[in-house]
Amino acid sequence: TNGERKVHWISWDKMCESQKEGGLGFRDPEAFNQALLAKQAWRLYQRPSSLCARVLKARYYPHCSILNATSPTAGSFTFRSIIHGRE
């Protein structure tokens, strides 16, 4: 109106819908982050001889598998995040 440009607000849920459903096709960053963390947990499970898996196993879950490991309160942010992604 009167030559002014206005912002057309749209909800985040609508932005995250697929384009086929009428959304903008953005990914939900929280779900995407959790999926990437779950992928890291899967790699620790699948490749237990990798350097990263051996270091984390020695430090955080020496007597069990990554599938049974618990997140210690004093654990690193990285390990706590991987455990969160595993869930």
Question: Explain this structure to me?
Answer:
The chain is an all-alpha fold and 87 residues long. It has a domain at 28-86. It contains four helices and no strands. It has helices at 12-16, 29-46, 51-60, 77-86. The termini are far apart. The mean pLDDT is 87.
Structural class: mainly alpha
Low-confidence stretches: none
Binned, the helix content reads 40-55%
- Strand/helix succession: HHHH
What summary fits the major beta sheet?
Answer: none
Tell me the span between the first and last alpha carbons. Answer: 50 Å
* Overall average residue pLDDT: 87
Shape by Cα distribution: elongated
* Count of helix runs: 4
Taking all Cα atoms into account, the compactness measure Rg is 20 Å
Assess the beta-strand content as a share of residues. under 5%
Number of strands: 0
Protein topology:
Elements: H1 12-16, H2 29-46, H3 51-60, H4 77-86
Helix pairs in contact: 2-4
